[in-house]
Inverse folding.
C-alpha cells in the first residue's frame, strides 16, 4: 500500500507557512507500515489540484489530501475531487445539521458560506467532524482511494487516527499485505565526516542489501549531516511488529557502534533525540562533577546549549563570556598575550574552574573570521580543559564555515571533548 | 516563469525531518516574481526521482531539486539528472581539486567516496561550492532547466542567492517576462501581539485594497510571528521597475511606522534582515558605550546573539552566565536572597557593569519552568539595567511558552529594552 500526500494551499507554495501536516502524516503512515513514495504541494487552483490528484493516483495506491475544505471561496478541494471522481457534488443534510449545531452551541449564527462544507462528491463517505466545521471525505476513485482532511493540524490528525488509519489497515488486510511496521533509530556522531562514516560502514550496508535479497530483513542506513547536531546515522527497519522492530534496531545499533568505535574511537555520543548537551549532562552526573565555562569565540553559545538540559543547575555552574581581552586578563586571570593560543585556552579553563567554583573548567577561544587574529586563520579553535587531578590541557581544531558555523562547530567540538574526557582516559 | 521544487530524501517522506528548504525556496522565488505551482518530495530511489523530475518538467518551466548530492551511496540525484538529460556523468577535475583543497585545509584526508561529488552530467554547468563539498548543478533539459543544490539549508540558500536567482532573472529578461518587479520590505517589531498589529493596521490595509481597485498600486501587508526574531510586518509591492518599487516601499514603511509608533510607541526595531542584536549594536555605537551582561535564565543566549554582529568587540565586553546562585553572590556581588527578583536583577546588572568593565550592565533572571522558583511562576522574567548617570533599574515581564521559548522571549525582551533605553528617555 503506497499513499501519496497532497497538501493544498497557495500559502505553502509561497513559503508563508511550513508544511508540517505532510511531515506528521509521513511519520504516521510509516508507523502503520504504509509506504509513501511522493508528497506534493499545490496551490488553490482548480485545474492544478485536479492535475496533482491525477498525478498522485497514477503512481500511488491512494492519496491523502490536506487542506482546501474550509468555507471560503478559495477552498476548492471538494470541487476538484468531484471532477476527478467524475460525479456531482451533493449537499449532505446530516452534515448541514452538524455544522449548524456547532455554531449554535457557540451562540453564533452560521454564515451561509459554511453550507459549502456540506457538499460531498456523490459516492464519497463522510468522516464526521468533531473539532472543526469541515468534515473529512473518503472518496473511491476506481479501485483506489482519496482521503480528504482539513489543513488545520489538530483536525487533520484527529481524522487520520479516527478514520483514515483504520481504513488503511482494513484495506491492507483485505489485500493480504504484511501488517508490518517501520521503525527507525538515529545514532548520533561527532568526529567523522559524512563520507568517512559512509566508507567505514560501506561493507555493513552492502551486507544489509544482501540480507534483504534473501528475505531475512529490510534494514536501510542513511546519513544526515546536521551541523551543530553532529552527523546522524539513521537505521530503518521493517518488521512484523514493533517488538521485532525494536530487537532488530538493537542489533543494528550494536553493530554500527562497534564498527565505528573500532575505526575511529568514541564517536557515538547519543541516540535519537539525545543531543551533545544531554551526553555531557550524563557523563557529569555519572562522575558527580560540576562544570564551568570560559567562552570567547563562542560568546555564550556553549552555555546556552548546556542550560537546555532540564536539571542543569545540578552540574552547570555558569560561564564567563570573555569577549574583550581585558575580561580574560582581569576576570579569568589569563596572562597578557595572544588570546588565540593553547596557553590562553589552558589559562581560561583554569580561570573558569576557579572563578565559577567548578570541578571541571572548559574553555573555547579561536577565530570566527572573516579576519585573522593573533596570526591564526578563521576556523582556528583552541579548547582548554582543566580537570581534577590533571594539569590544564589544550586541544586544537580547525573547523569550516562562516562566523556562525565556526561558532557552532567549535561549540559541539568542545562539548564533545568534555564528554570524551570524562567517559574515557583519552580525550583525543 | 514557473519553477517546481523537488525535495529529495527518504527522511522527508518518513517525516523524520521537516522540509524547510521548500518553504525557503518558495518564499524567495515569490520575491523574485517567479511562480511555483507545485512542490514534490521524493525518496532516495533512482526510478522515482527520475519520475518526479519528468513530472515536474512536464508541468513547469524548470525545477529546483534539493538534496541527494552528498558523497554517500544514497546520494543519487546526479545519476537521476544524467538519466533525465540522457547524458553520461563526467568527472570534473576542477571540482575534484576544490574538494581535495577543502579537506586539506582542515588537515584531513579526502575519502575516495567524495570524488562522486565531482561527477557532473555532461552539458551541465557547476555552481561552485563555497560552504560544503558538493557543488550545485545547472542542467539544461531541452529548453527547460533543472537546478540541483545540496539539501544542507545554508549551502542551498547560498547557491540560490549566488547563482540560481541571477540565472532565473536572466532567463525571465530573455523571455520578456520581467514585466515589472515584486519587492518586499519587512518591518520588524517587538512589544505588540500579532492580532494587536493587525487591528492597529486594519484601516490602512483596507485602504490599500481600495487603492488597488483603482489601479493606483498593488501593495499587500502580511504578518508573521517569528518567535525570537519578533513579529514581522511584510509589505509587498508590485511596480514597473525597482526604483518605483523602492519608493513605494519607502512610503508604506513610513506610514506603517507612524501608525505603530502612534499606537504603541517605539515597537519597530529593524528593517529586513536587521535583527534585535543589530539594533542594539547601532544604538551602542551611536552612544559610544560598551555593554556587559549577567545572564541567569537565558544561560548565555543573549551574549551569543550579540556576538553574531560583526565588529561586536568594539562595544561588547562579555557576559557572566551565573547559573548557580553562588556565582551570582560570589562573582557578581548579588546580596544573598531570592535570585528571581527585581533586587537581584538590579544587583546583577550592576555587577556585570563592574566586573566586566562596561559602561552599561544588562541582566536577565527568571523562571524557565516547568517548576516555580522563589515563589514565581514559569515565564516570570526580570531584566536589570545599570546605565551611566542612573541608579540600577529593573523591569518585569511575563512571557509564554516552554523552557526554550521562555529563554528566547526573555532574550529579545531584554535586548529590546536595552535598545529602547539608549534610543529614548523612556525605556518602558
Amino acid at each position: 500500500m503506497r499513499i501519496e500526500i497532497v497538501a493544498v494551499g497557495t500559502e505553502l507554495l509561497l513559503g508563508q507557512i511550513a508544511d508540517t501536516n505532510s511531515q506528521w502524516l509521513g511519520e504516521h503512515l510509516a508507523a502503520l507500515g504504509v509506504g509513501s513514495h511522493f508528497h506534493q504541494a499545490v496551490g488553490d487552483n482548480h485545474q492544478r489540484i485536479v492535475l496533482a490528484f491525477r498525478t498522485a493516483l497514477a503512481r500511488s495506491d491512494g492519496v491523502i489530501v490536506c487542506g482546501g475544505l474550509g468555507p471560503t471561496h478559495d477552498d476548492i478541494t471538494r470541487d476538484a475531487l468531484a471532477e476527478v471522481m467524475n460525479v456531482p457534488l451533493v449537499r449532505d443534510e446530516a452534515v448541514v445539521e452538524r455544522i449548524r449545531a456547532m455554531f449554535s452551541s457557540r451562540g453564533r449564527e452560521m454564515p451561509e458560506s459554511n453550507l459549502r462544507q456540506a457538499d460531498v462528491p456523490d459516492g464519497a463517505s463522510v468522516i464526521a467532524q468533531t473539532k472543526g466545521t469541515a468534515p473529512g471525505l473518503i472518496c473511491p476513485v476506481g479501485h483506489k482511494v482519496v482521503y480528504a482532511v482539513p489543513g488545520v493540524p489538530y483536525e487533520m490528525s484527529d481524522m487520520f487516527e479516527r478514520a483514515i488509519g483504520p481504513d488503511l489497515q482494513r484495506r491492507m488486510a483485505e489485500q493480504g499485505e504484511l501488517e508490518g511496521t517501520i521503525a527507525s533509530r538515529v545514532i548520533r556522531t561527532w568526529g567523522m565526516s559524512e563520507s568517512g562514516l559512509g566508507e567505514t560502514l560501506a561493507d555493513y550496508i552492502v551486507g544489509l542489501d544482501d540480507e534483504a535479497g534473501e528475505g531475512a530483513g529490510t534494514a536501510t542506513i542513511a546519513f544526515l549531516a546536521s551541523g551543530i547536531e553532529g552527523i546522524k546515522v539513521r537505521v530503518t527497519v521493517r518488521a512484523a511488529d514493533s517488538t521485532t522492530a525494536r530487537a532488530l534496531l538493537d542489533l543494528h545499533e550494536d553493530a554500527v557502534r562497534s564498527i565505528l568505535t573500532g575505526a575511529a574511537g568514541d564517536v557515538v555520543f547519543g541516540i535519537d533525540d539525545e543531543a551533545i548537551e544531554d551526553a555531557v549532562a550524563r557523563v557529569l552526573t555519572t562522575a558527580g562533577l560540576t562544570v564551568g565555562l570560559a567562552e570567547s569565540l563562542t560568546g555564550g553559545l556553549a552555555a546556552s546549549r548546556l542550560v537546555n538540559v532540564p536539571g542543569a543547575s545540578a552540574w552547570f555552574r555558569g560561564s564567563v563570556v570573555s569577549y574583550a581581552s581585558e575580561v580574560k586578563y582581569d576576570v579569568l586571570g589569563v596572562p597578557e598575550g595572544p588570546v588565540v593560543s593553547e596557553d590562553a585556552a589552558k589559562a581560561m579553563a583554569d580561570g573558569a574552574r576557579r572563578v565559577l567554583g567548578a570541578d571541571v573548567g572548559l574553555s573555547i577561544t579561536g577565530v570566527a573570521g572573516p579576519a585573522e587574529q593573533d596570526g591564526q586563520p578563521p576556523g582556528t579553535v583552541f579548547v582548554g580543559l582543566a580537570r581534577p587531578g590533571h594539569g590544564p590541557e589544550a586541544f586544537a581544531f580547525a573547523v569550516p564555515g562562516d562566523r556562525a558555523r565556526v561558532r557552532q562547530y567549535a561549540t559541539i567540538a568542545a562539548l564533545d571533548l568534555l564528554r570524551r574526557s570524562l567517559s574515557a582516559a583519552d580525550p583525543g
Summary: Chain B has a mean pLDDT of 90. The longest strand of chain B covers residues 181-189. The CA atoms of residues 278 and 310 of chain B lie 9 Å apart. Chain B touches chain A through 91 residues (CB under 8 Å).
